[in-house]
Amino acid sequence: MADLIDGKAFAAKIRAEVKEDSDKLISQKQVDPCLAVVLVGENPASKVYVGQKTKMAAECNIKTKDFKLEASTDQETLLKLIDELNNDSSVHGILVQLPLPKQIDERKVIDAIVVEKDVDGFHAINAGRLSIGGDMLKKAFIPCTPLGSLLLLKDHVEDLKGKSAVVIGRSNIVGKPMSQLLIEESCTVTVVHSKTKEIEKVCSQADIIVAAIGRAEMIDSKWLKDGAVVIDVGINRISIKKEDGSEGSKIVGDVDFESASEKASKITPVPGGVGPMTIAC
Ligand code: NDP
Predict the structure, then answer these.
(1) CA–CA separation, 46 vs 40, rounded Å?
(2) Best residue among 48, 150, 233 to mutate for probing ligand 1, ranked by most atoms within 8 Å of CB
(3) In 3D, which of 44, 39, 37, 114 has the Cα closest to residue 73?
(4) pLDDT tens across 76-99, in order?
């Protein structure tokens, strides 16, 4: 059976370090760190994420300013708010919760945030810095989910150099930045997606699998090499029948945990793996 990679415990350590840094900013530099959190609309998952981020920020002595806008908000209004936050010296970071409603061009909004306040790391310049790597990487804000996943890997794999890693998914917020971080660690990286041929075969040769697909429990033991390390980024809500026969739901990853645990050497659980790391990072 695979060893569990405990993201919850690791995330608590990160938050303690962030709090220390934050306390130093307050006491030594008279800077009161402040994050602006912008939520447009009523997406239930987004509301939960925003709530968690606000709570964790408070735990780390980081102030938050919440901006909750109607789902019907137009692009101009949102861009105006971003402009105000960019110019507000009491705000140090800006998080715009994605996805945004259809009438708004996400790329326009993300790239309107000044690079130094783009703490999500989605701005084209931050993405470019990550892609270039080396010294440029030191200047970049790195997207939190891949960063959290990499920290877990570094904590559990003795030497990443030369390891073969397959990243399943090529989104701008997880798959692509994850692959770039792993290249930077000198892994040999393959990115697979919905058009990849013989995807199972490709995955079954990897020392490391990072699954960021959004398909409940798609990856089972057949996809894995013996001893593979598995990072499950997926968060999927599925319906279940409760013991009393009533309908309920639960959160599962992109990996079939029971099956994958038979072959993997180490694996992140869902929940309790990448999720808490994302919030902490
Ligand atoms: P996207 O929907 O943006 O991307 C999904 C990727 O998976 C795409 O590249 C897509 O391929 C690929 N894919 C979809 N179906 C298949 C398939 N059958 N076989 C192979 N590849 C497939 O999702 P995100 O990257 O935003 O998120 C991925 C998952 O991670 C979701 O479950 C999400 O909820 C979760 N997540 C979790 C976070 C956390 O904190 N733990 C944070 C962010 C996301 P193609 O490009 O060809 O369409």
Answers:
(1) 9
(2) 233
(3) 39
(4) 999 999 999 999 999 999 999 999
Looking only at the bridges linking them, the beta strands covering 236-241 and 247-252 are antiparallel
Look up residue 154 and give its two tokens: 């570094």
Q: How many distinct helices (H) and strands (E) make up the chain?
A: 11, 11
Residue with CA nearest ligand 1 atom 19 = 194
Q: pTM surpassing 0.90? A: yes
Q: What is the pLDDT of residues 261-280, one digit of tens each?
A: 999 999 999 999 999 999 99
100: DSSP letter: P
21, 281 in Cβ contact below 8 A? no
Pocket perturbation via mutation, ligand 1, pick of 149, 213, 215 by most ligand atoms within 8 A of CB: 213
Q: What whole-number distance in Å separates Cα of residue 23 and Cα of residue 91?
A: 17
